[in-house]
Amino acid sequence: MNQYFDLDRRQNVSYLNDASSTSGYSSANSPTSTSMSPAHSPESTTLQNEFANLALPPVENSPQFMNLPYHQQPSQLMPNGNIPNASFGNMYMDHQYYTSAPPPAATVQQTALNFQHPQPGSGMKNEFPAVLQIAEQPVEKFRFRYKSEMHGTHGSLNGANSKRTPKTFPEVMLLNYTGPAVIRCSLFQTNLDSPHSHQLVVRKDERDVCDPHDLHVSQERGYVAQFINMGIIHTAKKYIFDELLKKKQDRLVFQMNRRELSTKQIQELHQETEREAKDMNLNQVRLCFEAFKIGENNTWTQIAAPVFSNPINNRKSAQTGELRIVRLSKPTGSVTGNDELILLVEKVSKKNIKVRFFEENEDGEIVWEAFAKFRESDVHHQYAIVCQTPAYRDKDVDHEVNVSIELIRPSDDERSFPPLGFRYKPRDAIVSRKRRRTCSTATTNSSGSSGTGSANNSMELPITLAQVQPMAISHHDQTISQEFGKESHLEELINSVQFRKLIETDSEELEKMCDPVLGMLVQDGFGKSEIIASTAAALEPTSKCLDAIFRAFETARHSPQVSESARKYVEELFTNHALKNDNHDTLLHEVISQKQDNLKLAFKTLQVLNFFGLRDLASTSINADGDSGLHIACQQDRPHYIRPLLKLGCNPNQQNHANDTALHVAVKEERMSCIDSFLNGVPPVKLDLTLKNDDGLSPLHMAIRQNKYDIAKKLINHDRSAISVANTTDGNNALHMAVLEQSVELLVLILDAQNSTLTDILQARNAAGYTPLELARCKANGRVVQLLEKVYPDRGETTMTWIPFKVKEEIDSSSDDSSDTGGLEMKTEEDVVIKTENDDDIDTTPQMETANARNLKILLNNKTRFDKLAAQLNQQDIWRQLAKKTEMEKFVFLWSSAEGMLDYLYHKSSRAEFESFAQALHEQLGVLT
DNA sequence: CGGGAAAACTA
DNA sequence: TTAGTTTTCCC
Asked: PANTHER family given for it (predicted)?
């Protein structure tokens, strides 16, 4: 006899064999209950009446076992004076279990109910004549309760179609059979044909009776068995093995007709149980239904193949419970995506959750889907997700789009329901374009009336421009420069791509055009035809206004004495016009953002303003959004206006109402040419790359968050100090943010810049107090951490607040005795040693360039030779093998071909990387000689 | 009942 | 230690 501690009764209880209850919720204290299921708890004498485990009648200590068919010992042997099973016949009628009215004929009923087909194996010859079919599945989700929670009533396991009224319960039907039978229900695992360690209990007189549960059916009562009032007890982890073993053992004993198990069998059972217990799904179970007939001598014979219910999921678990979005931080976002969105959710598992955005058409078909971006660490305590919205499928839509958001749990493809609405808002660029198009039709009409529309095409470029262009353009296109002098081609020229390219980049002469020197202006300006033409356009506010201004210009130019009054007039026109516009766009905003870009008109406007000394008017004019002309140019991707505007005095650091500078806008919209226009050359006012918008981000921060290497590179090249700016939302600097992006490319870029900066971004702490390395350790992958650890002079240890296990072990094992107080100093010394030994990545001392490296550099510098080498290295992936042998090894995963790698080598590699690769290349191919 | 949360446990 | 889970407790 053994003993165990009964948790219910807080005392030791004796029992016969190890397989007896250890769970604490079945009090198997009867000496004779050896292989009984907990249903046979003593003290529940009356229970036997209702929940007798017919399958496992208690037996004498040395029972007589027989071979199949299963054998039932005389019920008189039941312990504790139980009522013999003669009473089973009507027990379900008397109590909570009942049987439905007998079906007219089992086979007829079949069609009326939602049947499942018998289990697998139906492919094989079914040895059983009778068939079990599930008439009502159990509910899909149900809260599993721990033993300690099983007080009072807690709702029963209902049928899948249960309503408040009528309620349904799991139900099976026995077909193709006549005569009395027993239908058994027990709890099984879902991915294994083996019992589950959880308990399927029925509440009876303050007591939970465990599975299996048996119901009698017969001709008279019908062949439908309904299992009412069941609950599922979640076995605590520590008891899982014991419970599972007990169940398996009980089952085996039953199958073997209660023959005593051999030592070997017990051993095998142990092993098997150990295996199963290890990865049993604790949040999912299914019901197993079996049917038996009880023959003479209580011989139990299986009469139908077992069937299994659909899985029942634990409602309270994050792995199987319901998914629900409780709240969104905001209901809208930009079509460009990357907006921060916070979802409050019901319990989710960070390793097993996705946020899906999708759009349906009128027919309910999915026309678009995308997933929000977030990391495991962005899931806050199972109840909130901080993510970045995905970009909408069409970034150029001009209206708001309603989409839906839902949570998805990949493991079981569960979705949250109902989906929440989310509205994508079109980009500013599109909105303002649309607004301008509808509220003022300056665009084509205006140009038509003032330019090409006039008979003699009197509108011309400034003379200086005409002189400058041939030279400048010739670089790009010989023909155009030749054609330039001919007036008829002027229109063509000015609208040509080459011309735009030219003014987009740099042309000092062109910029002079905007200088307030009269000589720079249009020589013959507007002819009379212009005025005539303008009457036709009188209905158009913008073109009318422009025409008036141009006319004033014309007059003033020829008669300087009226200049002053003309100036005032123009100023008034300009200001009033803006006020009339919905969003206070000025003429300047309008000409820059015309749908059909009209350079001539735009420049002319600039010149006229310039002429009247109204530079300030132009350079300081902002619309209702606080956007300057520069903002608009970036928004609308009109890079060629940027330099002229700057020259005119527009402040590049001007921030709009969202605190975006024009550069912010350019980065957000990824306007590469605009960015270039800003960064190349020297604007009159120094660009301030540290300005932060309302999201707390500088342009560089935005580029990093959008994972735009090219943009980040341009910005950093323009001003390295930008990398040390901390954003104001979480205090992260560029390196922190690159860590979060987990982009090796960006990291390398920033670290390279760091080498030549005084500010130490490595030690900078964000709002949470982390340095980039520390941040990497808790948020990024190993590769990122490794990369960073290499560049930290002290390997980041001295400033660590938290050291993950792996690293800690290294430290512990490498430092021999570091005591509590002396640890830091010890380590520092040690690091100095390490640094001199193997810090080959950072070249602090200038070295002579090797011949190989020099040759390789020359080679890469030549486009043709670069391509040739790339092609050569691409054969059989030589480049990859080669790179793996060198300092480049750690980056190989970055590239798919030699071009990418060579590009890195040429533009971004460290000296060590370059040298080692040059060396390897030389050895391998000899190409460098 | 279902929901919420404290306490206990674990890596 | 901390942070994440599991189990118990409570309303």
From this structure: NUCLEAR FACTOR NF-KAPPA-B P110 SUBUNIT, NUCLEAR FACTOR NF-KAPPA-B PROTEIN
**Residues A849-908: tens digit of each pLDDT:** 677 887 888 888 777 788 888 888 888 888 888 888 887 777 776 677 788 788 778 776
- Report which of A2, A72, A82, A74 is spatially closest to residue A34, judged by C-alpha positions: A2
Nearest residue (CA) to C1' of C8: A148
Residue A901 pLDDT: 82
**Domains of chain A (ranges plus CATH)?**
70-314 (2.60.40.340), 325-426 (2.60.40.10), 689-792 (1.25.40.20), 851-925 (no CATH)
Q: Which residues touch strand B (CB under 7 A)?
A: A 143, 149, 152-156, 237-238
Residue-wise pLDDT for A200-222, tens only, equals 888 776 677 888 899 999 888 88
Instruction: Give me the phi and psi of A191, to 5 degrees please.
Output: -110, 15
Cβ pair A386, A380 in contact under 8 A:
yes
Amino acid letter at A98?
Answer: Y
Contact between A612 and A553 (Cβ < 8 Å): yes
High-pLDDT (> 90) share of chain A, %: 15
- Cis peptide bond prior to A166, omega within 30° of 0: yes
> A457: Cβ–Cβ under 8 A, 6 or more apart, which residues?
A451, A487, A490, A491
DSSP A383: T
Q: For residues A542-562, give the mean pLDDT.
A: 76
List protein-proximal bases of chain C (any atom < 7 A from a CB).
2, 4-10
Tokens of A745: 């490319």
Cα(A43)–Cα(A47) distance, rounded to whole angstroms?
Answer: 9
Each as own residue / partner, the long-range contacts of residues A539-544 (CB below 8 Å, 24 or more positions apart, any chain) are A540/A440, A540/A441, A540/A442, A540/A445, A540/A446, A541/A440, A541/A442, A541/A577, A541/A580, A542/A440, A542/A441, A542/A442, A542/A443, A542/A446, A542/A577, A542/A587, A542/A590, A543/A441, A543/A442, A543/A445, A543/A446, A543/A449, A543/A450
Distance, first Cα to last Cα, chain A: 88
- Pairing state of beta strands A141-142 and A312-314? parallel
- Which chain B positions have some atom within 7 A of a protein CB? 1-3, 10
Question: For residue A435, what pLDDT band results from cuts at 50, 70 and 90?
Answer: low
Report whether the peptide linkage leading into residue A418 is cis, meaning its omega lies within 30 degrees of zero: yes
pLDDT in tens, A718-750: 998 899 999 887 888 999 999 988 888 999 999
Closest C-alpha to A151, from A8, A342, A358: A8
Per the listing, tokens 């044909």 go with A193
Alpha carbon distance A535, A548 (integer Å): 10
Radius of gyration of chain A (CA): 41
Q: Which nucleotide is nearest to A805 (CA to C1')?
A: B11
Which is more confident, A535 or A267? A267
Is the pLDDT at A91 greater than 50? The verdict is: no
Distance of C1' in C3 from CA in A817, Å: 29
Question: What is the C-alpha to C-alpha distance for residues A522 and A541, in angstroms, rounded to an integer?
Answer: 24
What are the pLDDT digits (tens) for A130-166? 999 999 999 888 888 888 888 777 778 889 888 877 8
Residue A664 pLDDT: 95
Distance from CA(A309) to C1'(B6), angstroms, rounded: 36
pLDDT at A499: 63
Footprint of strand C on the protein (CB under 7 A): A 146-149, 234, 236-238, 282, 317-318, 349-351, 377, 381-382, 802
